[in-house]
Amino acid sequence: MKQFRKMTYPYVVWISIMIVFPMLLIMFYAFTRQGNSVTQFSFTLANFGRFVSDTVFLSVLGRSLRVALITTVVCILLGYPAAYYIAKCSEGLKMRWVFIITIPTWINMLVRTYAWIGILQDDGVINKMLGAIGIGPITMLHTEFAVILGMVYNFIPFMILQIYTSLTKMDYSLIEAAQDLGANSFKCFTKVTLPLSLPGVISGITLVFLPAVSSFCIPKMLGGGQYVLVGNVIESQFLTSGDWNFGSAISLIMAIIIMISMYVTKKIDTTEVSERSAT
To answer: Domains along the chain?
Structure first.
């Protein structure tokens, strides 16, 4: 037991430096404002009041939540059929498809997102293809469509892999039992497969919604600075305006929203498990 505790010391130090200490700094700056001296600070809630009283910041927060929700829904609609198909393939094909899906994640997200600029611009690949059949050019870059497309492209592998893992761990004898009892393919899916795969869906929602709602790189690159989300506001407060107190307050608000989202998804997952155990 003592040997095990000693092995955890490096991880505790790492977590303290990289997670706990930065969060304490954010909390400190969020609840303080600087006085006349560099070392003079006073407690205040004005940073939070500024955010909740300004309709511009609230509209940006609402836009961020809406874009993250759309991104999550699209990832579910596209990711579930893909995961279901892969789970039904032979073992050799499963590994190949998983390999194909994970390949893009090996490349830095900035590079992947930058590639979409060349694809979506007015003289890009898509508009050239549309121009060949007499359509276009269509303005796609620096729009909400481009931002959502970039988020779906970057985050959908996490949704597919989570659902795929859940489907492969499923007990397929339950489907056979349902078929023996007269259930058709649709009922087998809705009554057996879908409920048993919900933990994977919920995990996928967590891995997609949370980074999407706080993303600042994708909106900045594909939105061209014209489509601002809350992540871009936080970035500008720290790097451009130099208002660390207000930026920390927004960061803390987003952290609370993310923790509430994680609690809700965990609660739903626990409820689903309890219902399945009861039945």
So the answer is: 55-278 (1.10.3720.10)
